[in-house]
Design brief:
The chain is mostly helical. The protein has one domain. The protein is built from eleven helices and two strands. A two-stranded antiparallel sheet has the order 1-2. A hairpin with a 2-residue loop joins strand 1 and strand 2. Helix 3 packs across helix 6. The longest helix is centred in the middle third of the chain and has 33 residues.
Length: 280
Amino acid sequence: MITQSLTVSAAVAIAERRSGRVDAGVRAGRARTLMLRNALALRTNNALSFLTGFVEPVIFLLAFGYGVGALVGTITYGGMTLPYAVYVAPALLAVSAMNGAIFDSTFNVFFKMHYLRIYQAITSTSLGPLDVALGEIGWAMLRGAMYAAGFLTVVTLLGLTTSWWALALVPAAMLIAFAFASVGMAVTSYMSTFHQLNWMQFVLLPLFMFSGTFFPITAYPEWLQVVVAATPLWQAIALTRGLFLGVLEPALLIPVAYFAVMAAIGLIVTTRRLDRLFLR
């Protein structure tokens, strides 16, 4: 009886706090609860899958930065002549942030949504769909930050960092991960089978190969350069490469604005979809 009374009192207190807010119908302000749940799950059975997101860019750096780099030598970027490994490293960090966010917001979210039915249980409490969206996307953002910090440590130990501005790669990776996770979760909310998730590879693989990760897009025809420059991964690489090299130009604000808009759109679509799916 006492436990029931305390539960009711807590629910009443939450309802009173959110009653005056514009977003009262979709958010209780407790997204951190879902992030805590993901952190606890990581400690039990998801640690290995989490570790692969850090190991993958390191393997690519060693294979391409040093293996292919031994054949390429140096590369010209922004008027600077760089060792190939220095050119590739910040791009791989951006790719790592993207892949980690997409993995979390597609495969993991789909499994929780359709098999574990976690979100149905969560939205039957005081938490709303915006809490779910912010919790999952916020976790992807933290994952991107941890990947960036670990990868930056390896790159520094290899002697590839050229500027103290490389430390800004951690918040940059968080922004990139947040934006990709927002869109990834929005797309996942429209999927009904696991097979549909394989479509993501048709998008991610071309982005990885042709967005300036391994060579400048100036190798393309001008019309194709315009198309590639509009893709999110190219914007992410432009941001991380500029910060890594300490090339601070007003143009770096363009990818920041790009990802802010991308995150906002994804978050709005995700919230509306979850509201329609679970609260109707």
